[in-house]
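User: Please fill in residues for this 365-position structure.
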């Protein structure tokens, strides 16, 4: 799903891409945000800590918190890495036909793995990151050689199509603004026969494909022979424009993550561009490397670590850590023990990725 060349083997690598991906994955799978939950329990930090804690959860419907940006960030950075990976394949003499077959195979396995992670003995769901990415990745790949105007046209056409279906699809009693009573809910009832938990809809794969497509555009921009300042300003100004436009649409088209309204896709895409510009400036221009490398290593095996976490890896590591943290820090109280355990588990997650990285073991689809 991305280029996983060891960091120390490529001098010209855009480390900010690896940092962005690794930082996103670290937040997504380690449960490190649980520290703020424990601080709220302890009554520490009062309103500030409570506000931060709120940002590490999804909005119920209309709310948009930081956590609602994690999946768009992940899909966006997959797109950013695609032109770099494609360029290397072409440099090795790989044909377009072979690259397309590889992309098709990768999309198939993303779909299969996502189906497995979302299935129970009675139902299944395709709303987790992997099946959504399966579709979006293939669409972005088919557009990767196209001019930017066509990439933008297709991405906004998919967003517009989604909004039009939500507004005008002729199903009695369904409308865009009601959880489980909108086009996405109807689509799930018609295809899989049931609604998904917490109002998520499978149809999100259509509008959020824009995040991967926009990532591809950004990847191509980073490969251009432009000055760093021009790249940073282009990303930053475009991103801030997207954030402003997206929020400005809210009175007419609410920012709702769970059905990926056009305003949400544009706002979250804008934030992804802003964060990418800051990452590029700090890591590749200002040359801050130590902390970014820590997170970059974590992102070198994204599929493996995501599946490991989804299959209960966090609970397993927690069971391994608790016998030690509860006995070594028994004097500090339950909340402190919980916080220390969260940090230890996050460190164990990181060490697993470091272990694989040092041995040049990279799980690819």
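Assistant: Residues filled in for all 365 positions:
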């Amino acid at each position: 799903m991305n280029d996983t060349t060891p960091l120390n083997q490529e001098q010209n690598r855009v480390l900010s891409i690896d940092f962005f991906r690794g930082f996103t994955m670290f937040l997504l799978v380690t449960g490190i945000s649980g520290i703020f939950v424990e601080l709220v329990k302890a009554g520490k930090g009062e309103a500030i800590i409570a506000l931060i804690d709120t940002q590490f959860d999804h909005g119920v419907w209309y709310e948009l918190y930081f956590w609602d940006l994690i999946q768009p960030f992940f899909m966006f950075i997959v797109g950013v890495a695609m032109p770099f990976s494609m360029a290397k394949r072409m440099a090795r003499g790989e044909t377009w036909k072979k690259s397309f077959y590889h992309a098709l195979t990768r999309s198939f396995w993303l779909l299969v793995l996502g189906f497995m992670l979302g299935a129970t003995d009675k139902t299944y769901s395709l709303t987790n990151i992997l099946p959504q990415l399966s579709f979006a990745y293939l669409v972005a790949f088919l557009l990767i050689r196209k001019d930017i105007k066509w990439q933008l046209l297709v991405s906004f056409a998919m967003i517009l199509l989604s909004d039009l279906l939500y507004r005008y699809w002729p199903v009695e009693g369904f409308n865009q603004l009601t959880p489980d009573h909108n086009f996405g809910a109807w689509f799930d009832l018609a295809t899989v026969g049931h609604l998904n938990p917490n109002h998520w809809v499978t149809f999100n794969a259509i509008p959020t494909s824009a995040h991967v497509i926009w990532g591809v555009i950004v990847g191509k921009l980073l490969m251009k022979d432009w000055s760093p300042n021009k790249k940073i300003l282009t990303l930053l100004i475009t991103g801030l424009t997207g954030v402003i436009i997206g929020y400005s649409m809210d009175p007419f088209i609410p920012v709702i993550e769970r059905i990926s309204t056009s305003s949400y896709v544009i706002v979250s895409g804008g934030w992804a561009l802003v964060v990418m510009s800051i990452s590029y400036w700090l890591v590749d221009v200002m040359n801050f490397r130590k902390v970014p490398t820590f997170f970059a290593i974590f992102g070198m095996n994204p599929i493996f670590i995501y599946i490991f976490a989804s299959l209960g890896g966090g609970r397993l590591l927690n069971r391994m850590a608790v016998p030690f943290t509860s006995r070594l820090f028994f004097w500090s109280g339950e909340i402190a023990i919980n916080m220390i355990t969260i940090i230890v588990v996050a460190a164990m997650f990181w060490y697993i990725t470091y272990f694989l990285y040092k041995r040049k073991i990279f799980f690819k689809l």
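For context: The first helix runs from residue 15 to 30.
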